[in-house]
Amino acid sequence: MRVAIAGAGAVGRSIAQELLENGHEVLLIDKNPRAIKVETVPRAEWLLADACEIAALDDAALERCQVVVASSGDDKVNLVVSLLAKTEYGVPRVVARINHPKNEWLFNESWGVDVAVSTPRLLSALVEEAVSVGDLVRLMTFRQGEANLVELTLPEDAPLGGERVGSVAWPRDTALVAILREGRVLVPTPDDTLEPGDELMFVASQDVEDELAELLSAN
Predict the structure, then answer these.
(1) Of 51, 4, 41, 10, nearest to 25 (Cα)?
(2) Where is the RCK N-terminal domain (predicted)?
(3) What is the DSSP letter of 112?
(4) 35: how many CB neighbours lie within 10 A of its CB?
(5) How far apart are CA 88 and CA 61, in angstroms?
(6) Residues spanned by CATH 3.40.50.720 within the chain?
(7) Among 141, 144, 155, 167, which residue's CB has the most CB atoms within a 10 Å radius?
């Protein structure tokens, strides 16, 4: 897919390198000449322009992008880029970086944001995930509350230990998407069993999280 990244700082360049390694086309956009470091990501396209201006986004051919990433260090810029990408160019997927937690409430579909990434929130979630067993930890929110990526490490005395995935009556609007077991990532099938110590990754709506946590918790 073709991905445009607004903001060619350290974050934007790191994202670009990862995407290029995975076989995608990447365009980096930045208005600061000092940020145009072509030698750091030589396989990417580069554009010296203000991503908040329609003329610049026309030059970037944003209508041909499947994803736009607003990764600048300025939340105002990221919101404007997200809104333009969604409303003016119909980009299917817009991901925006939140620099300041107090602005998190703005990063929603009204501003064209499909996925908002807050570094402080993500770090705190990862800390919780690292130390929590038997507690449901929210890792990421999609479309501002429509669904969340949540994780739970199955306790030793969990009632579902040894149960087949397909035999569990999961709450509505819940999907078990991965099982992390002994360093391996398993794509669950109905015949796979749940084992104590498994890290279970779900995509679930927020209103069933309590029900899911109760189902998976220890007696």
Answers:
(1) 4
(2) 1-117
(3) T
(4) 18
(5) 12
(6) 2-117
(7) 141
Q: Where in the chain is the domain with CATH 3.30.70.1450?
A: 132-216
- DSSP 8-state assignment for residue 193: B
Amino acid letter, residue 10: A
Strand-pair category, 93-98 with 67-70: parallel
Q: How many residues does the chain have?
A: 219
- pLDDT value for 131: 47
Block residue for tokens 């819940």: 174
Specify the fold of 132-216: Alpha-Beta Plaits (3.30.70)
pLDDT in tens, 44-95: 999 999 999 999 999 999 999 999 999 999 999 999 999 999 999 999 999 9
- Integer Cα distance of 187 and 192 in angstroms: 9
For the chain, the C-alpha Rg in angstroms (whole number) is 20
Q: Which two three-digit tokens encode residue 71? A: 């990764």
The structural architecture, per CATH, of the domain 2-117 is 3-Layer(aba) Sandwich (3.40)
199-204 and 147-153 strand pairing? antiparallel
For residue 46, give the 3-state DSSP assignment: strand
What phi-psi label fits residue 179: left (phi over 0), alpha (psi between -120 and 50 degrees) or beta? beta
| Per-residue tokens: 114 | 């499909």
